[in-house]
Amino acid sequence: MDTKTRNIVLERDNHTCQACKKFPASQVHHIKARRHGGSDELSNLVTLCGRCHMIISPVPAFALWNAFRVRETEIPDKKRRIETAIKHFQTNLLQTCQHQTNEEVLEMGRSRYKIYEPDKPHFLTSTVINWLPIFTRPDTTQIILDSFCYLQQTQAVKLYAYVILENHLHWIAQADDLNKEIIRFKSYTAKMLIRYFETHKVKRILDELRFRKKQHKQDRQYQLWEEGSHPQCLQNLDMLRQKVDYIHLNPVKRGYVDDAVHWRYSSARNYAGMDGMIPVFMHW
C-alpha cells in the first residue's frame, strides 16, 4: 500500500492496536491477505501492534518466542482472539463507513476519543509528529513545564501526574472544559517550540515538521503534534492510581533509569515527597 493509505488507516484507528488496544501501534495489516486477493481498500486494513501482527502472520514459532516470548502452545488461542477482534472491528467499520470519504473516516476515528465526562480526570497522550525526539534539550522540555504551570495557575486545570519522554508525553488532567485546555496547551507549546527551533536554526527538525504536516492543515507551515490526545476517562481511584503508576514507571520500563524518581521530567518525585520540577495535584 502507499504511504498515504497507511497514514489514513493509522489516523483512523488512532495509532491503536484494534486487537489488544495497545498504544502506540504502527503495523497496518491486510485483513484479507493480498496473496488471497485482498485489496488496499480502507475496509480491508486495520492497525495492529507488532506482537498481534506477528501472531497472525505466517512466521515461525521460534521467531515469535525470540521477539515477544510467546510460546508455541499459546499461539493458536491468541491467534483466534486476535482474528475475532479484527472481525468485530471490520463489521463495525463497514456499518459506519460504507459511504464515507477518507476525511469522514478520520473524523469518525477521532470521535471515539472525545471527552464526555469533563468532571473526571483523563489520561492523555501528546505525541510529536512522526515521533521526532525533540525533548532531548532542557529548553524544549521547559516549554512543556511552563505550559503545565500556566494551565494550573490561570485555567484551574488539575494536573495529577505527568512524564515527558523524548518524543511524547503522558499526563493526567481535569478541567471544566478539558477539550479547550488541551487545544490551548498544544497550540501554545507548538508555537513556542517551533519558535525555539527557528531561533536556534535547527533545520533538520523544522524540515521534518514541514514535511510531515498533514495535507488538510493549510493554515500553517509546520505541524508539531500528532492529532488527538487519546483521552481515557479515569472513573475511579483504582484507575487513577494505575495510570499514575504507569506514568511514573514509563522511564523505568524503557530502561532509562533504575528508579522512577531519577527521571527529572515527571511527577514521580512529587509523589515520593521530594521536590518535583513543578507542582501537581495530589489531594485525591
Essential attributes:
single chain, about 280 residues, alpha+beta, Alpha-Beta Plaits, 2 domains, 4-stranded antiparallel beta sheet, two-stranded antiparallel sheet, 10 helices, about 10% strand
Q: How many discrete structural domains?
A: 2
Based on the coordinates given, report the CATH architecture of the largest domain: 2-Layer Sandwich
Q: Can you identify the CATH class of the largest domain?
A: Alpha Beta
Identify the CATH homologous superfamily of the largest domain: Transposase IS200-like
CATH topology of the largest domain: Alpha-Beta Plaits
Largest sheet: 4 strands, antiparallel
Strand line-up of the largest beta sheet: 4-5-3-6
Proportion of residues in extended strands: 5-15%
**Number of DSSP helical runs:** 10
What integer value in Å does the Rg equal?
Answer: 20 Å
Counted beta strands: 6
Spell the H/E element sequence.
HEEHHHHEHEEHHEHH
Please mark out the parts with pLDDT under 50 across 5 or more consecutive residues, or reply none.
107-112
Name the shape in a single word.
globular
Q: Class by helix and strand content?
A: alpha+beta
- What portion of residues is helical? 40-55%
Distance from first to last alpha carbon: 48 Å
Return the average pLDDT rounded to an integer.
Answer: 88
